Amino acid sequence: MDLFVILVLCLSCLLLLSLWRQSTGRRTLPPGPTPLPIIGNILQIDVKDISKTLTNVSMPYAPAVACKSGMNVVLHGYEAVKEALIDHGEEFSGRGSFPVAEKANKGYGVIFSNGKRWKEIRRFSLMTLRNFGMGKRSVEDRVQEEARSLVEELRKTKASPCDPTFILGCAPCNVICSIIFQNRFDYKDEDFLNLLEKFNENTMIVSSPWMQICNHYPVIIDYLPGIHNKLLRNMESIKSYVLKKVKENQESLDVNNPRDFIDCFLIKMKQEKHNQQSEFIIENLVNTVNDLFGAGTETTSTTLRYALLLLLKHPEVAAKVRKEIDHVIGRDRSPCMQDRSHMPYTDAVIHEVQRYIDLIPTNLPHAVTRDIKFRNYLIPKGTTILTSLTSVLHDNKEFPNPEKFDPGHFLDECGNFKKSDYFMPFSTGKRICVGEGLARMELFLFLTTILQNFELKSLVDPKDLDITPVTKGFASLPPSYQLCFIPL
Question: Where is heme annotated to bind (predicted)?
């Protein structure tokens, strides 16, 4: 038989198989745009702005829509997201498909694990972080100390123009280091600089259009060149560094006196060494530390960087925050968490920064852990669920003019701070960010300490500042900018 005919027959069979799988897979799922064979809905997606695309695609079908060959479901709007992640939290607590992360972590750690492993590692991580003071006074002391070090580094700029990316990455990274590795790093330490560079580079890569394509077509990761390979090399380098620190801890471990997170995990490993089913193994230790490192550094530093840009764009907001700082804290002591309840405007500004920038627009992917009936649709076990946090944080009924930066979104008519159930920058439910409490503390203490000590000066007229994110894939990243920190 002619080779061409054989090839046509094979392709026809593949096409028919793809059509059959799509039709059977979508039969019980929510409605959505019809996917093309093999390539799914990729032609309807703007890989430069996934969040906007999912919003546009979802609107005719909201609150739930099936996309990508029928095996992804997108939840749109507060009610649908709440119903899934909170009301049916257990059923929607799986980690959905994220091929690049799966390639790097192989299902280990706390962020990309599932089932029994995820539950045990998450429970241990939360308990250990709390024991080391997360959300308590002891970790507040560490954040205050780091805030003072941050101020000293900013003073070294001598009011000259600078890009704050690196300096704002050092502070939250050092807080995590003090919990995981027992001590902080000097801002000029070579290992520290190397780690920060890789974290920053990975955030840019994972948010790039190319990475959205890789996650849509996982075969690319194994067989084609591209920046995804740089991401994987960076992650291996970071894990190698973490493993080196683990070995140092193993050599000096005192089971009666744990010094940091690594020691606690090593002690747990010793306690369970005869349990062949134990999840407390070296692979989970290295990947969990890597997860805490990356999540605890880049999310907070990116939010801080975006916050300063927004304050440059809106100097009247910065002036009001500084007035509140002068009134409540003054200049003679460091800000503390007790101050926050007396600073409603500052609290509202920080919340509005997080709402406005919409840092992780589509959340990390979830998956259903069993077949579940959701709003009259049957979603099969293992289906990846994308929750549009954009649709919640930018809901125009809860937040009038959501595309406008306005701290008034979190203030009542009397100027008191106003909570909102729609505030979900850390996600919600059983997979909510492990470090939410620490991140909230850092954002308040770092930002108030900076504004207590410096005036922020833009190099261009505020009205000419561009605050549009340079990319809106996995994360919304601010454009590069420079400013001057003028000592007060």
Answer: 433
Q: Which long-range contacts (CB under 8 A, 24 or more apart) does 400-404 make?
A: none
pLDDT band at 125 (very low <50, low <70, confident <90, very high): very high
User: Are 19 and 37 spatial neighbours (Cβ–Cβ below 8 Å)?
Assistant: yes
Lowest mean pLDDT among 205-214, 232-241, 256-265, 280-289: 205-214
Instruction: Give first-to-last CA distance, the chain, whole Å.
Output: 84
Q: How far apart are CA 281 and CA 270, in angstroms?
A: 10
Can you read off the two tokens belonging to residue 442? 């850092």
CA distance 445 to 449: 6
Structural tokens at position 238: 């970071």
> Is residue 352 assigned to a domain?
yes
414 is in an annotated binding site: no
Q: 147 in a domain, yes or no?
A: yes
Does a structural domain hold residue 10? no
Percent of the chain with pLDDT over 70: 84
Minimum mean pLDDT among 125-134, 160-169, 371-380: which range?
125-134
Exposed/middle/buried for 388, CB within 10 Å: 0-12, 13-18, 19+?
buried
Structure tokens of 223? 């067989």
Residues in Cβ contact with 47 at an 8 Å cutoff, skipping those fewer than 6 apart: 209, 210, 212, 213, 473
Using DSSP's 3-state secondary structure scheme, residue 249 falls into helix
Closest CA to 228 of 94, 98, 50: 98
* Cβ atoms 105, 121 nearer than 8 A: no
Do 106 and 286 meet the contact criterion of CB atoms below 8 Å apart? Answer: no
Q: How far apart are CA 465 and CA 458, in angstroms?
A: 9
Q: Which domain holds residue 139?
A: 46-487
The single residue listed with the structure tokens 């770092």 is 446
CATH number for 278: 1.10.630.10
Going by C-beta distance under 8 Å and a sequence separation of 6 or more, which residues neighbour residue 455? Answer: 322, 485, 486, 488
Quick: pLDDT tens for 170-187: 999 999 998 888 888 999
Structural domain tally of the chain?
A: 1
Contact 395, 84 (CB under 8 A): no
Q: How confident is the model at residue 67 (pLDDT cuts 50, 70, 90)?
A: low
In a domain, 14, yes or no: no
Nearest to 354 by CA among 326, 319, 392: 392
